[in-house]
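REVIEWER CHECKLIST
Item 1: Sequence provided? yes
Item 2: Single chain? yes
Item 3: Sequence as submitted:
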Amino acid sequence: MADCEEITPYGDNGRGKGGQVREMFDSIAPAYDFMNRAMTLGIDKLWRRTAVKTLSGHGAGDVLDVATGTGDLAIQIARAIGDANVTGIDLSANMIGVGAKKIADAGLADRVRLTQGDCLALPMADNSFDAVTVAYGVRNFENLAKGYAEMARVLRPGGMLLVLELSTPENRAVRPLYNIYTRCIIPSVGRLISGDSDAYTYLPKSIAAVPQGEAMLDLMRGAGLVDARCRRFTFGVCSMYTAIKPK
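Item 4: Structure as written out by the authors:
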């Protein structure tokens, strides 16, 4: 079991991690986009742009965006890849509601569809998608191995799995500043903006606990994927993992 599977937003409240994650995102949905921009100083847009460029270079027509949240990555994929049809899935109905409005406002409702569902039991057939993406959501999985197996299952042979995830910087000069920012500043601002301090206390704990680097690549390989690679951004505070389903 990965350590992050034991980290929950609200502690031992009698509910499993999946239920707590759903509750957390339902709670913070109205403030989620603002907090993302504020927490990363807007750099998260650049990370997603690089992810979409990588996806575009591989070729992707039918895309599944797992843990889609409010649809930021799904929207960016549809805008950048003109022939892409994107399905987003997320546990939280409130996040899906915010995302659906953004998609309608962007005029992309014909190519981006959001649905509520469990990433550990995807309601899609085998070999359905040319690419599967997940941005900043893997650390919220209740069972990482099962989540990766499901994403691999719905990929078509030759398709790409692309994961963006926050990570802990390895640079000794950067890490103390990072720790102060994530452990002190983010929870304080999160409490003021969202009203849910637990959600933004959970964030740095889940980042610290999620498998990183080679350990994350091993999860991809364990799901039967090949050519697993990792690329780090911005002093290592974000990592992009890619792997291919064998033909």
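Item 5: Key structural point noted by reviewer: The first helix runs from residue 17 to 40.
Item 6: Recommendation: ____
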